[in-house]
Amino acid sequence: MRTLTILVTAVFFLLSTASAGSQPQFMFVPVPTTVELGTGSLPITRSFSLAITGFHDGRTDRGAQRFLVQLSRQTGMFLKPTASEPSKVTLLIHADHDSEPVQKVGEDESYDLTIGESLAKLHAANPLGILHGLQTFLQLVEITPGGFRVPSVTIKDQPRFAWRGLLIDVARHFIPLDVLKRNLDGMEAVKMNVLHLHLTDHEGFRVESKSYPKLHQVGSAGAYYTQAELRDLIAYARDRGIRLLPEFEMPGHSRAWFVAYPELASLPGPYSFQPGSGPDPVMDPTQDKTYKVLDKFLGEMSKLFPDAYVHIGGDEVSGEGWDKNPKIQEFIHSHGMKNNQDLQAYFNQRLQKIVNKHHKIMIGWDEVLHPDLPKNVVVESWRGQQSLAAAAKQGYSGLLSFGYYLDLMWPAARHYAVDPMADAAATLSPEEKNRIWGGEACMWGEWTTPENIDSRIWPRTAAIAERLWSPQEVRDVNSMYTRLDELSWRLEWLGLAHRAGKIHMLHRMAGVNDISALRTLADVVEPVKDYARMENLKGPWDNTAPLNRLVDAASPESDTARHFADLVQRYVQSGFRDPDAESAMRALLTAWQGNDDKLHPYLEHSFLLSELAPLSQNLSTVAAAGLKALGYLDKGEPSPESWRTQQLADIGRAKASVADLLLMVVAPVQRLVEASSLKSASASR
Ligand code: ACM
Predict the structure, then answer these.
(1) CATH code for the domain of 482
(2) Sign of CA pseudo-dihedral 504, 538, 557, 510
(3) Distance (Å, whole) CA 358 – CA 356
(4) Distance between CA 239 and CA 407 in Å, rounded?
(5) CB of 459 within 8 A of CB of 498?
(6) Would you call the peptide bond into 159 cis, given omega within 30 degrees of 0 as the criterion?
(7) Substitution site in 202, 253, 315, 408 for ligand 1 pocket (most atoms within 8 Å of beta carbon)
(8) What single DSSP character describes residue 94?
(9) How far is the CA of 494 from the centre of ligand 1 (A)?
(10) Which residues are catalytic?
(11) What is the 315 CA–ligand 1 centroid distance (Å)?
(12) From the alpha carbon of 405, which atom of ligand 1 is closest?
């Protein structure tokens, strides 16, 4: 068998140019460390079978079972549910030894996958590598004129970073267990290994506590996980090679604590979940009682959550609650502290001792960074890459979350460009770099619901997963998007509702079966970026307010708009001579131009749609301008300047947000309108 060795960089070349030729189009996410392409392929037929040799346990067996279920979904074939005789199988799995009883940071996750024409072999040191290798195999399955097959390849793979996390905020809006589980399935598919649950915040305390039952009875506003449910979730995650990291926010972000136990707060209550009510909710770090409660509570939680780490939050302590309490101010002065930061460091030092007493290691957001803290505290950087580098320089290990905030509604490419080792970290010494363990995508919950959270997480999180797994040189954005588009529909096999959820929501908004015109509009808009939606609010943010508007349904990144922008780019680059791009643009622009007339009757019939009228009108106006510009470019006739001035003014207005939504096709249409001034278009025709 002739084997063609390709370096990782060559694989990207294939990935980004595959559509142009007959080269295989690998749809890996994340891209493996090395891929050697062989010739030929392994057919996937109804007689497909697998066997496990070497070390195996319940987790490996269940992983293999899940693999077969998934392969059945991908092929529609009924595959044998049980492992077969090693001598007769299609896929031979071998792990050398067991993994750690509680998954460790930096545990070996590597695997080798060799696919020949009659046999595939998956080898790993332990079951973690086996789980990852099985996902890689599933991503290789392709349909061909001759049937399903897996191309002959030899893959050697291991993660770049040991910590590849996803934070889900279940405090601001409660996310039920089944939704978390399907997201764990998605994480497994892209080889992520930490689910960080933000379990407590102002809006709710989401974990059952037997030592302080009012925390969940009163502090949850009715929605929390029982300990049995959490044990089930932890086992589910472990089965997929994923650690579960709990976060209990303190001393700030803690109103839910005080709704249940106001005596822990710095200022007298009462505290309630009423938006904007009550004093600044922050724990009183000067009273022993606070630490007694935290000791007992963290002792209980340390038994429930097996992971070696516990996240204590520590971010955004305003200090107002401390400033307004004379007893606390007196404590600061009498202990020789300079300010509230010193008081928080004092709190963290005492907290750290409690966490250690329960055999756990403390993680906090980057505000916890203080020279008084021991070096085994891990810092999660959310305010910038600078703080991650600063922590590493001072001897602390750290994780990057800055740049990976999914709630900011950035495009995947923007997250993809963020590298934990770049910027300030790039100048660190090798020893300091070793302290950077990876990063976490963060799904903050101000605007999430069980219905739309998948669409905020997927597929964008897969781009972050690749950043954290694949070699640093893997950064071709076109290749990433090609693979993300494919991954996106494949993720639906796992029950993720990142595409289906939007359709359900559009039906609700319209109240009718025919949502085609609404969908046309919905497919070209995105929610406003960063914190603009919060800033647009008229009153205090309220987590009990309905989330049923188009901004809640729309994808964070419009695939349609991205594809349209690509067409414009192709067309402009071709010197306006790409007829395929031109006809594809025309088809889209024509549909958009006529969409307002189709959508209008529906807008009047639904209070959830009426706010969209100006947006729908803008889409038609902008599309008409695009069509006209194409007309000029087509005829090779420069557009009149007065026409362009008028169109660019309309386009400028259409860039403003409407109903917290942005029309994402405006910028590419602007490009066409501006290009239509060119004489060169005419000269070439
Ligand atoms: C944070 O976003 N305050 C961690």
Answers:
(1) 3.20.20.80
(2) positive
(3) 5
(4) 28
(5) yes
(6) no
(7) 315
(8) E
(9) 30
(10) 316
(11) 6
(12) 2
**How many domains, in total, are found in the chain?**
3
SS3 annotation, 553-588: HCCCCCHHHHHHHHHHHHHHHCCCCCHHHHHHHHHH
- Give me 91's structure tokens: 């896929």
Task: Answer yes or no: do 368 and 250 share one domain.
Answer: yes
Residue ID of nearest Cα to ligand 1 atom 3: 315
Q: Is residue 68 located within the same domain as residue 90? A: yes
Q: Which of 369, 382, 446 to mutate to test the pocket of ligand 1 (most atoms within 8 A of CB)?
A: 382
Ligand 1 atom showing the smallest separation from residue 253 Cα: 3
Indicate the average pLDDT of the chain: 94
Q: 446 in ligand 1 pocket by Cβ < 6 Å? A: no
Average pLDDT over residues 442-469: 98
- DSSP-derived secondary structure letter, 45: -
Total residue length of the chain? 685
- 507 shares its domain with 496: no
Residue type, position 18, single letter: A
What does the pLDDT look like over 299-314, one tens digit per residue? Answer: 999 999 999 999 999 9
Using an 8 Å Cβ cutoff, are 556 and 527 in contact?
A: yes
pLDDT band at 291 (very low <50, low <70, confident <90, very high): very high
Query: Which amino acid residue places its CA nearest to atom 2 of ligand 1?
Result: 382
- Is the distance from the beta carbon of residue 382 to the nearest atom of ligand 1 less than 6 Å? yes
Nearest of 471, 411, 507 to residue 32 by alpha carbon: 471
Per the CB < 8 A criterion, the answer to whether 381 and 398 are in contact is yes
Atom number, ligand 1, closest to the C-alpha of residue 444 = 2
Report for 275-279, 565-569, 635-639: range of highest mean pLDDT: 565-569
Answer whether residue 227 is part of any domain.
yes
Q: Is 320 left (phi over 0), alpha (psi -120 to 50) or beta?
A: alpha
Question: Is 338 among the domain residues?
Answer: no
DSSP string, 208-269: --SSSTHHHHTTTTT--B-HHHHHHHHHHHHHTT-EEEEEEEESSS-HHHHHH-GGGBSS--
How many Cα atoms are found within 13 Å in the side-chain-facing hemisphere of 678?
19
Domain that holds residue 591: 503-684
Domain limit, last residue, from 483, 501, 519? 501
**CA separation (Å) from 91 to 84, 123, 134, 208, 269?**
10, 11, 10, 43, 63
641 and 540 in a common domain: yes
- Cβ neighbours of residue 310 closer than 8 Å, sequence gap 6 or more: 245, 246, 247, 248, 298, 301, 302, 355, 360, 361, 362, 363
C-alpha 405 – ligand 1 centre gap (Å):
9
Using pLDDT thresholds of 50, 70 and 90, give the confidence band for residue 679: low
Asked if residue 447 and residue 381 are part of one domain, the reply reads yes
For β-strands 120-124 and 142-144, DSSP reports them as unpaired
Nearest atom (ligand 1) to Cα of 315:
3
Task: Inform me whether the pLDDT recorded for 11 exceeds 90.
Answer: no
Q: What is the mean pLDDT of residues 450-470?
A: 98
Name the token pair of 445. Answer: 């919950």
Does the Cβ of 372 fall within 6 Å of ligand 1? no
Q: Which of 134, 157, 180 is the last residue of a domain?
A: 157
Token match 């004092």: residue? 346
User: Nearest 5 degrees, angle CA 506-CA 508-CA 511?
Assistant: 105
Has residue 297 been placed in a domain?
Answer: no
